[in-house]
Amino acid sequence: MSAYPSVQFLTSANAVQQLPVDTGVEVAVAGRSNAGKSSAINAITQRKGLARTSKTPGATRLINFFELESGRRLVDLPGYGFAAVSGSMRQHWGELLEAYFAKRQSLRGTVVVMDVRHPLTAHDQDMLALALKRKVPVHVLLTKADKLSRNAGRQALAGVRRDVAAAGIVTAQLFSAHSGDGVPAARGAIERLLDGKPVEKETPVGPADPTGAS
Ligand SMILES: Nc1nc2c(ncn2[C@@H]2O[C@H](COP(=O)(O)OP(=O)(O)OP(=O)(O)O)[C@@H](O)[C@H]2O)c(=O)[nH]1
Ligand SMILES: [Mg+2]
Q: What pTM does this model have?
């Protein structure tokens, strides 16, 4: 059973004019190409194959909107930092992202997905700055936590929390779409953002979701 029984793909946008109607609330999922954004969306919604995932960076080339429930959306933003695309295409993405963050009224928060093994790259910093400029809260998923020992994961989390503490409205947690660790916590954080509530500073990371998200 999905956490969102009626979750569905809504639409894709490749230009500001193609964004769906700006009513209701949404949380954007951003991060470097190949970080694991689409996998995170599938794990959180418990719908494998909802968002397209790929081993090849740049799989998500459009802004994809998913409706969790009526008037509540998750938005899969195009991966940035994909070196192999042309300069003009990268510029197009950058402009689209900036326009999205500047104009989107229904945006309530941003989830920034980072690979726990190398978080807070220059691109991640750009993304945080873009989201924080809009003054929406940011929740960081340090994903692929299955690739590190528990101890190394905790150290990485502590480091990120320390580094973003000054920004004020940034929270962070460990996550793995593969093991399911942190999936319920991430879902809870997104629900709070959609409801306009602050995410707990020390988002607990419990065991894998007993309902079987993977
Ligand atoms: N080990 C591990 N691999 C993961 C995890 N999440 C994603 N991956 C892998 O990382 C690769 C990229 O995942 P995607 O979810 O497609 O990444 P994305 O951020 O949506 O990428 P773009 O659409 O290119 O921006 C795939 O090969 C996934 O299987 C995770 O939690 N653990
Ligand atoms: Mg993707």
A: 0.91
The Cα–Cα gap between 97 and 28 comes to: 11
CA distance 35 to 195: 26
Measured from the Cα of 175, ligand 1's closest atom is 31
Q: Furthest-apart CA pair in the chain: how many Å?
A: 46
* Atom 3 in ligand 1: residue holding the nearest Cα: 144
The 10s digit of each residue's pLDDT in 46-86 is 998 898 887 766 555 789 999 999 999 999 987 765 445 56
Please give the backbone phi and psi of residue 151, each rounded to the nearest 5 degrees, phi first: -65, -45
Q: Is any atom of ligand 1 closer than 6 Å to the C-beta of 48?
A: no
Q: Is the CB of 140 under 6 A from ligand 1?
A: no
Decide whether any atom of ligand 1 lies within 6 Å of the 184 Cβ. Answer: no
What b/e string do you get for 130-153 counting C-beta neighbours within 10 Å, with b at 16 or more? bbbebebbbbbbbbbbeebeeeeb
